[in-house]
């Protein structure tokens, strides 16, 4: 499978929200996609970088050291992109003339 910027971005978002909530299901809900879609994103990302990013413990998805390193690298990027989206997607009241 060819890695495109769009695919990589989706994989990083799936990874980020899974790590943040320690749950593939919650990540899928936040991203408004199916749980299998997020699972596939994670599997594809791990395969492409040849690293294990998560392990399961008591029903939670926890980060490996490699996963923690990746999370720390992409967190400011994802947070910034989310902030830009929120800023520009807010409904602005039309200006009125007095």
What topology emerges from the helices and strands here?
Elements: H1 5-21, H2 24-31, H3 35-49, E1 54-57, E2 60-63, H4 65-89
Antiparallel strand pairs: 1-2
What does this structure look like?
The chain is mainly alpha-helical and 98 residues long. Helices cover 66% and strands 8% of the residues. The protein is built from four helices and two strands. Strands 1-2 form a two-stranded antiparallel sheet. 18% of the residues are buried. The mean pLDDT is 90.
Structural class: mainly alpha
Mean pLDDT over all positions: 90
**Reading side by side through the largest sheet, how are the strands ordered?**
1-2
Query: Globular, elongated, flat, extended or rod-shaped: what is the shape?
Result: globular
How would you classify the quaternary structure? single chain
Rg from C-alpha positions? 16 Å
Helical content (DSSP H or I, runs of 4+)? 55-70%
- Strand count: 2
Query: How far apart, in Å, are the first and last alpha carbons?
Result: 58 Å
Helix segment tally = 4
Largest sheet: 2 strands, antiparallel
The stretches of 5 or more residues where confidence is low (pLDDT under 50) are none
Order of helices and strands: HHHEEH
Key phrases:
mainly alpha, two-stranded antiparallel ribbon, 98 residues
Question: What's the short version?
Answer:
The protein is mainly α. 66% of the residues lie in helices and 8% in strands. The protein starts with a helix and ends in a 9-residue tail after the last helix.
């Amino acid at each position: 499978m060819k890695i495109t910027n769009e695919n990589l971005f989706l994989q990083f978002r799936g990874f980020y929200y899974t790590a943040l909530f320690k749950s593939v299901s919650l990540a899928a809900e936040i991203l408004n996609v199916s749980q299998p879609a997020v699972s596939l994103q994670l599997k594809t990302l791990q395969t492409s970088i040849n690293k294990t990013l998560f392990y399961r413990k008591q029903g939670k998805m926890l980060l490996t050291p490699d996963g923690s390193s990746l999370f720390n690298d992409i967190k400011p990027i994802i947070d910034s992109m989310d902030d830009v989206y929120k800023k520009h997607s807010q409904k602005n009241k039309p200006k009125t003339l007095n």
